[in-house]
Amino acid sequence: METYKVILVGDVSVGKTNLLTQYVDGEFSEKDNSTIGIEFKNKIIELKNGRKIRLQIWDTCGQEKFMSITKNYFRGCSAALFVFDVTKKDTFNNLEKWLKLFNEFDDEKTTIKILIGNKNDLKPKNVNKEEIDKFTKDHFRKYFEISAKTNKENIVKMFDEIVGKLKEKENDNSINDNPINDNPINAYPINDYNFAIKKADNFGQINAQKNNQKNNLKNNLKSQKNNQKINLKNQKNNQKINLKNPRKKKNC
After folding, report:
1. pTM score, two decimals?
2. How many whole angstroms separate alpha carbon 192 and alpha carbon 198?
3. What angle do CA 187, 192, 193 make, to 5 degrees?
4. Burial bucket for residue 141 (CB in 10 Å: 0-12, 13-18, 19+)
């Protein structure tokens, strides 16, 4: 089965993770949990001719501190989905930066680039249509406006069209598509993968250390409170005993 690497790119909190989970798992989370490092999910699609392909969809972190990890996943993509929040103009403006960075690492220069405006269920929309149209015309194959929360049908339709464009690209002899094998480790050069995983592991260790410190602090505070309660209780019991059994004064 051929596997095509698709990557989600954009600022933190634009809804990349919910877009992915809604499409693959049919789930949406109200919690704003930022992706740490990078994650991926697979989606098997059956084409009209009965042939099956796998979309390997990578969800990248939008925080700048993880940029050294994220950029290493830009290599070997069949399609790149650049996502912004239609209610936040800065997330649209920052796509210029993401696009420039992506192009530096896009070895084949043949990746299908799609622009996605997410959260169209919210108001007000702060990115005007003229800007979107121009940006799409200059850099992208197509623009989709969706809501990862309320409109799963549009997301499915969007990915169906992306698959169609991947097949068009495959049939064009002048363009080399980027199918990868079934092993996600080969989604990009092995050296880059090891580098990225090492970085991810380091961040994971740092987060684990922070969580351990928080848990230790929490446990210490809980222990101190319990000790204080026990000491206070012992003091009260001792006072009660002293009141019941007052010491007799000695005669001089």
Report:
1. 0.67
2. 10
3. 55
4. middle
